[in-house]
Structures are given as structure tokens and as C-alpha cells.
Amino acid sequence: MNIGEAARESGVTAKMIRYYESVGLLAPKGRTESGYRVYGAEEVHSLRFIRQARRLGFLVEDIRRLLALWHDRSRASSEVKSIALEHVAELDQRIAELSQMRDTLAHLASHCQGNDRPDCPIIERLADAATTECHEPGHVH
């Protein structure tokens, strides 16, 4: 099948299929005489695997490791579990950072009058942060 058909079958866009090929997550079986990529059921299955891994937030390098383990029938499930638990820890960190950002923004918004006056703690905080960054060592103007 061609890339459009593989995209429809897998639920992955043709653009993403090309990207996955460029980073080495997917290798098409071959090309036609006219140079078109050829995909089979195995590639579509791999694309579905990649799509699901991306939905779970895995990065390309983790997906590469998971794909290798998926194809290795002698794998130890402990390796897969280790990758998953590393990802859970990363997600927990990101959730904590997002919660802190939300709390900060909610606090600033609650202290903003939201009227016709120019005074605004949200703008002031952003400006303070920008000023602080400009005075940090190594900052390029």
C-alpha cells in the first residue's frame, strides 16, 4: 500500500509517517520503480504501536526502545516496566510543574481588578520576570 493508504489504516498522518521514517522509528519495506514508498501490514501495525505510545506521551527515544523490545520476543518485561515507570515519574514532574503554573496564574488573576485601569499584577509579574532574566549572568540581550 502507498503512504496515503498506510495513513488511513494506521490513523497516523502521512507527514508523521515521513517523520517517523526520518528519525528511524519506521522503515518501509521498499519502493516502487517510480520511487513511491511501499507499506505492508507490519508497518501499519508498527504505526499503530507508535501512535498509541505517542498518545501516552512517550518521547521518540522511548518509543524506539519500546519498539525494539516489542520486536524482541526474548525481552524481559522488567525492561518495559522500567521504561514505563521512568515515564510515569516524568509525567508526575510535568503535572507538578503545570499545577504550580496554574496556581500562580490563578493567584495573579484573582488579584487583577479586571477594570479599565492599566494596573495589572499579571503584566507586572511577567515584566518582573523578564527584567530578572535580563540581569542574570550569561544572558544575551
TrEMBL record:
Q: Is-annotated flag, keyword Amino-acid biosynthesis? A: no
- Chief subcellular location equals cytoplasm
InterPro entries registered for this protein in UniProt: CueR, DNA-bd_dom_put_sf, MerR-type_HTH_dom, MerR_fam, Tscrpt_reg_MerR_DNA-bd
Q: Which domain of life is it from?
A: Bacteria
- SMART domains (alphabetical): HTH_MERR
CDD domains associated with the record:
HTH_CueR
Q: What keywords tag this UniProt record? A: Cytoplasm, DNA-binding, Transcription, Transcription regulation
The record's Pfam families line, in alphabetical order, gives: MerR (PF00376), MerR-DNA-bind (PF09278)
Where can this protein be found? Answer: Cytoplasm
Provide the HTH merR-type domain boundaries: 1-69
Q: What is this protein called?
A: Cu(I)-responsive transcriptional regulator
